[in-house]
Amino acid sequence: VELDDLLGRDPVDLDSAGLALMLEHKVVLVTGAGGTIGGELCRQVARRGPSMLVLYEQSEYALYQSEQALSLQFPGLSLRCVIGDVKDQSRLDSVFARYRPNVVFHAAAFKHVPLTEQENAWVAVQNNTLGTLRIAQACERHGVEKIVFISTDKAVNPTNVMGATKRFAEMLLQRWAQRSNIPTVIVRFGNVLG
């Protein structure tokens, strides 16, 4: 039995040449950089030779852990660590004005299904939907070249608050992208191995 057999789908191979063209010598900002998905995105971006990688994370401890791991694995990487909330428009404007990101990977979200139900539901709605809108607005104001929004397979036919908030965020971003000049990509992740 191979590990890939447990996925229930074919593994996805990354387009390394395309990613290198998109990220090499660019300033890349990753929201949710301390999470499991955001952290892996940071490692993948770091391998593609950005001129700078900006980690944007709400959790100081998660940001510290990501910074320590990336500094060890990529010692020559120009790395900036920013504590911030994706709902905080003034903080976003300050960070975007200072670092001028070319590409933004928006992975920040409340993703744990049991925690986003019941008493935490409204917080998840605000973070996952309003946070996505705030990121898109900051990208537009500061001339970002491309946005990649990390969604979830739970947004396909949502049966929980987390899936519904991510689907709503997708719909907001799709509507926003219709009037924006910024190429916008929405990617739904399922189970991620490695």
Assign a percent range to the helix content: 40-55%
Q: What proportion of the residues form beta strands (DSSP E)?
A: 15-25%
Tally the helices: what do you get?
6
What's the shape? globular
The arrangement of helices and strands along the chain is HEHEHEHEHEHE
Q: Give, in spatial order, the strands making up the sheet with the most strands.
A: 3-2-1-4-5-6
Q: Give the overall average pLDDT.
A: 90
Quick one: how many beta strands? 6
**Backbone CA Rg:** 16 Å
Structural class estimated from helices and strands? alpha/beta
Q: Topology of this structure?
A:
Elements: H1 16-23, E1 27-31, H2 36-46, E2 52-57, H3 60-73, E3 79-83, H4 89-99, E4 103-106, H5 121-141, E5 146-152, H6 161-179, E6 184-189
Parallel strand pairs: 1-2, 1-4, 2-3, 4-5, 5-6
Helix pairs in contact: 4-5, 5-6
Describe this entry's structure for a reader:
The structure is a single chain. By secondary structure, the protein is of the alpha/beta class. A six-stranded parallel sheet has the order 3-2-1-4-5-6, sandwiched between helices. It has six helices and six strands, in the order H-E-H-E-H-E-H-E-H-E-H-E.
